Each structure stands twice: as structure tokens, then as C-alpha cells.
Amino acid sequence: MLKRSKWPWHLLLFCFVMLFASIASGCTNILPAKDEDMDEGIKVLIVAFGSREPIPDMKVTVRDMDTDQLVTTAISDSEGQVTLAGLEVGKRYLFVPSSVSDSSPMSNNSSGVAKIVKVQKDTSYVVLETYYQKENQRIEVPVVLQNPQLPHGCEITAMTASFNYYGLNLSKMKMAKKYLPTKAIIEKDGKRTGPDPNKAYAGDPSNELTGTYVFAPVITKVARKVAKDYKTNLKVTNLTGASQKKIIETVQQGIPVMVWVTLDLSKPKTKEGWYIEGTNSKPKMYRNLHVVVLTGYEDGKVIVMDPLHGYVAHDATKFFSSYKDMGSQAIAIEK
Question: 94, 127, 247, 297: which has the fewest Cβ within 10 Å?
């Protein structure tokens, strides 16, 4: 004979209700999740290049890549980690590590190396590598940003930064107005005609609508004139066609190298261009050409001073692939 259960009737009723709720809800939890369980944010770890040693008490600044607006700042803990919440899936952000003493993460003395991150649904961890503890591993080219005055002036801005590495303290605007040869693209009878980018800048680098680009031969000529006018002993070398090994060796000798690549290291994007004046040639126009200053290389990564973002790290293979796609154009300025 079975003994009657001695469980209180109200406890049995509670178990029945919970069992029913569990079946009805499938695999979901019976109790609602806390907010932090639903969005734990993205964990960021700041480490030193090479050693990968975590660096504590560093500031992380996050900017929206589309609007360049500040999104958030935070300070890492004693283990070099910080958690950032509220970043949107599908958007690109610029993560910049810097010393807490830096008034601006884009200041000339900033030790941080920025990283562009596109947030995916499964993005839960971001590692930021920096030279904060290894200052001697990269060339300290001052940060010079092209915006807002020169939205299409990456070439002359990169050249200005390269000269300023040697203590000249030049102005990007003076360099653009006094030294950069420019010619307008003219449309007549439905035909657009403009200069050869190997001979002059097409359009106006300060104009969002009419600015385009210029190639290495022009910047080489401009840089040599600047070096002469300012009575320096600096030597300007057009390294166009140089191998990856040659360019890296040049940088490792303490010489900054200007490099033509694309904005995001993707394949070059083009659209209909203009007829080169005096010819029937009409090459395609680049939509994503960009020029940066290569300042360091380590562990398969290059460090560049990007006129749009400051210091940024890139995979070396992708970087030099983009360099080749853009005609392997590069310029070195050295003592």
C-alpha cells in the first residue's frame, strides 16, 4: 500500500504552475533576464605590441566612423580591460587607446594606435595593441589631420606630417596653397577635361565636391621644393615600385614613408573620370584613394599616421596588397 504524500498542497500547486510555465515557454527562462545579461557589451583588452602584455589604466575613446562623433570614453582596469555597452551592430567605430594623461587621443604625443572595428552580432571582444610601453619601436611622426579644412587633401597633409617629424612645424594649409599645383576639371560641350594626376592635382583639395587626388611624382616634386625653400638637408626619394621588404627596411631605419593605398584597404573603386588635357586618354577616376605615412612594422602589422584618423594599425598583407593595387606609389623623406 502506497503512503500518501506529505507535501503541502500549496507546494504541489506551485510546482504544477512552474512546470506548466516551463512547457509553455519552450527553452526560454522562466524568470526574466536582467538588463546586463541581455547586453553585456564589448570587452576591450589593451596590450603592448609584441609582448601582448596587458596595460592597465589606459583610456579608450570610441568615435563613430561615419560621423566622427565621440561615442564614449572609458578607463581600463588593473588588467587592461574595459567593457563598452551601447555600440550598434552593423556600424563602424574607431577605437583609440591612449594614456589617461593625454588631453586628446589624437594629440601629437598620443601613444595609442587606433583600430577600426565593424560591430557584428557576435562581436564580444576587441584587442587594442599599442606602443605605450615601447615608444622606440615606431617613428614618432606628429599627427596632422586633413579635416575639416582639406577633405580631399590627404597627400599634402601626409607630406606635412612627414616634414614635421624633422621639426619643421609646417602648416598643411600653407603647403596646399603655396606649393600644391592644382588645375580645375572643366566641362565643355559635355566633355570633362582635366590635368594628369602625375603632373597636377585635379580640382581643389579644400572643396568637398571638386577635390580629387594627385600621384607620387607631383608630391615628390613639391617635397623637394619645400626642402630647398626651408634650407634643410632633407632628401626626398620617390620609392614608387619598391618592394614590401624595401619599404619596411626604410621605415626601420627611422625614415617615414608616404604610401598610396585605399581608404579601407579594399579593392580600388572607380567611376567615370575625365579626359587628360591634350590627349584622348580618359582613365577611370579613383573613388577611394588615400595616402598615409608608414611609421612602424611589427608582428605582421604596419602602423600608419592616417590623415583621417591619426595612428592606425593594419594587417601588413592587406596594406601592401592595397599599395600594389594603387600602382605601388611611395615617397620617403630622410636626412
Answer: 127
Written as nine digits, the cell of 259 is: 604610401
Residue 159 lies in a domain: yes
In tens digits, what is the pLDDT along the chain, a chain of 335 residues? Answer: 444 444 455 544 544 444 444 443 333 333 343 333 335 789 998 887 766 778 888 889 999 988 888 999 998 887 888 999 889 999 999 998 887 766 555 544 445 688 888 999 888 888 888 765 444 456 889 999 999 999 999 999 999 999 999 999 999 999 999 999 999 999 998 899 999 999 999 999 999 999 999 999 999 999 999 999 999 999 999 999 999 999 999 999 999 999 999 998 999 999 999 999 999 999 999 999 999 999 999 888 999 999 999 999 899 999 999 999 999 999 999 99
**Which residues are CB-contacts of 194 (< 8 A; sequence separation ≥ 6)?**
183, 184, 185, 186, 202, 203, 274, 275, 276, 277
Domains identified in the chain, total number: 2
DSSP code of residue 136? G
Query: Do 118 and 223 share a domain, yes or no?
Result: no
